[in-house]
Amino acid sequence: MSTIWAACSSLALGLALLYICLLSLTIPHRSLVYVRLAIAPKAILYFWDFGYGSYEPPTLFISSAMAAVGIYGIMRVFEHSVVSLWGPGPPHWVARAGKNGSRPPYSHPQSFGERCFYAFDLLTSLRGASWSTNREWNWLPRRFHSWAPPPSGQFVKAGIKAMLIQYLLLDLLDTIFRSRSWDTTSRYPVSSLSVLEQSVFPMCICGGIFLVIDLAYTTLSTVCVLCGSSPDSWPPMFHSPFSCTSLSDFWAHRWHWVFRRVFDRLSIPFVCIMASMLRLTGKGVRQKEHIVTVTRTVIIFALSTLLHLIVLYRATQTAYRKNYGTEFPRFWDIDLLLFFMGQPVGLFFESAVIIPIANWMFPSKEQPRSPQKAGHRWERVALMRMCTWAFLIWTGRWGTDKWVRIGFFDENEMVVPFSVWRGVWRGKWKI
């Protein structure tokens, strides 16, 4: 119990220092930049201690979650201290989009109470939603600008129904994955199986990650709305990822946006350096924009790779001490590097090869505004979806190999406390 309190106290102190950094954003004084830079090292140490301190989490999932929260806190500190030297002004509130789509900005907070609420709202906002019912952050994703939530009562009912469905589906995927025993001594426990099994088990992992995140978010949003929060503050975590029509659609619009804002902000220094270098060349404007876009995409996936390497390194350390798997703790892992850094390669190949072929084979009747939106023929949609999921499953095998080798599916690891499917199948109701 003492270790739990020590970990929580480190998290609380890190959040308190990050809150002070955010509070200083409400005071337009250049010297406060140096105050944030002075606070940053101590805040980073507290977040690092929470994620990587000498604590022994009870499960690998809790160990991974603590590491993810710690690294995310560190990234937020970097975002609002170091990156603020390059980026535009501090975030600001805007009014919720009206019928004409306008989002007029709110004035900067002036009173002490408004400043405190600004810092708290920014601290707790992961994707640009606000606790206030009539405002949102200027960096809210475009797809949520016109989002109209149901009334509170319907929101809670829909949330309870969604939680039940998500739990049953998560239980089903976990049952499928544990239907066979896994050899954690194998270098390729999944990618050495039959083609069918190599397709099924990565899909189970992808669906399981989706359901774990969505179930936690649905539970939190339902409880908060039940306690009086506005449904406006809780836009969906995902946007139907399994109905994506391309790889770019999956990563840009369908998957969760928890880390998108901080990755975008952390990529600013690299993008600024690349833009400065391009000014010295004789390339055209469109070429420069394309190079900057590619640079930004690669940097974002590199940051995502770094995040997952750090998180799973912590999980590997915990598993090694618990003797779950045989994976020796290593920071650099080729499987994770291949999966995450393979995504920008896939995006480039899709843009240069797959989309032109799809447009040539199934041309649209109307002139498209962009290659990604060309046509709505079902043949083209089917071809794009087939290529997208073939690539995701093919690259997902590497990440699945890593998960199995670490020991995430050891018999001591629990995804759900009670299993309906295993109860009906084997009479094993309690996990």
Task: Please sum up the structure shown.
By secondary structure, the protein is an all-alpha fold. It contains 13 helices and 2 strands.
Describe this protein's structure.
- By secondary structure, this protein is mainly α.
- Helix content is 61%, strand content 1%.
- It has 13 helices and 2 strands, in the order αααβαβααααααααα.
- It has helices at residues 2-24, 32-52, 60-81, 112-124, 152-177, 195-226, 247-254, 260-266, 268-278, 285-322, 334-361, 378-406, 420-426, and strands at residues 93-95, 135-137.
- α1 (2-24) packs parallel to α3 and α2 (32-52) runs antiparallel to α3 (60-81).
- The longest helix has 38 residues, at 285-322.
- The radius of gyration is 23 Å and the shape is globular.
